[in-house]
Amino acid sequence: MSARGCARASAAEACAAVVSGPLARLKAWQRERRLERVRPQRADFERRLARFPMLAALPGPAREVLFERSTEILAGKDFFGAGGLEPDADDLLDVALLAALPVLNLGVDWYRGFHTFILYPAEFVAEVEQIDEDGLVHLGDEVRSGEAWAHGPVVLAMDEVRGSGQGEGFNVVAHELAHQIDQLNGDMDGYPPLPAGMEPARWAATFSAAWQRLQTELAQGAEPSMDPYAAESPAEFFAVASEMYFDVPGWLADTHPELYQQLDSLYQLSKWF
Ligand SMILES: [Zn+2]
């Protein structure tokens, strides 16, 4: 059947089947070429992985998926240096490896909301605008280790990236990417899209309760059960909780079992262990 024939409505369905075959194969071939160009050497993957205990602890099959996901991230995102950094292959691989963890099961399509990583050598100064209660705008500087812009780039400090994934409750990559996942369905509000089977009401109730618990602890001057930065906003609470889920999952499961369950239903990391 000719391509011209496909324009006829009466033949449309039959043509779709004919055209989708070769087209699908072409797309798959193009995708494989793109991945091939950036796929890390196995030795490099293992060498960089070893620097991040939380990644190195993944069982073999999960490491294979991490390898593919990080390749997909290297192929699908742009990486730019800033602040004098000219990122090398190790820099890109470190970011891609850590970025692969939150979407190990979800797939890299969950990063469709942004296209670019901007990498600084170390903590950077961000210009911030704050509006006070009288409506006056104040400009100021704030030191940051990472930033996730609304539908924009993910900005990371490489020394903080290298300090992530050590099992010490810090993972700036997971934190910033949780913000990106959060805003897939609109605002950064601590309410990301949920995979099929999850109950939105349960998510909301669990996060509200954990948020309230932290607010009460802080108000009473008690030892906070979560990094106080999480109390900044529901969006920060979700990002910090995600960071804990990936970096100190045992601690999170003990301290906030319900929260751990909800995050595990979203990210599904425990199925590998
Ligand atoms: Zn944040």
Summary of the model, kept short:
By secondary structure, this protein is an alpha/beta fold. The chain has helices spanning 12-38, 42-49, 53-56, 60-76, 89-100, 158-162, 172-182, 200-219, 234-247, 249-255, 257-267, and strands spanning 78-81, 116-120, 124-131, 137-144, 146-148, 154-157.
Can you give a write-up of this model?
This protein has 273 residues and is of the alpha/beta class. It has a single domain, classed as Collagenase (Catalytic Domain) (3-Layer(aba) Sandwich), CATH 3.40.390. Helices cover 50% and strands 12% of the residues. The chain contains eleven helices and six strands. The protein has helices at 12-38, 42-49, 53-56, 60-76, 89-100, 158-162, 172-182, 200-219, 234-247, 249-255, 257-267; strands at residues 78-81, 116-120, 124-131, 137-144, 146-148, 154-157. The protein has a four-stranded mixed beta sheet. A two-stranded antiparallel ribbon has the order 3-4. A hairpin with a 5-residue loop joins strand 3 (124-131) and strand 4 (137-144). Helix 1 packs across helix 4 (60-76), helix 9 crosses helix 10 (249-255) and helix 10 (249-255) packs across helix 11. The longest helix is centred in the N-terminal third of the chain and has 27 residues, at 12-38. It is globular and about 60 Å long. Residues 1-12 have low confidence and may be disordered. The chain binds zinc ion. Zinc ion (ZN) binds next to helix 7 and helix 9. Zinc ion is lined by residues 175, 179, 236, 239.
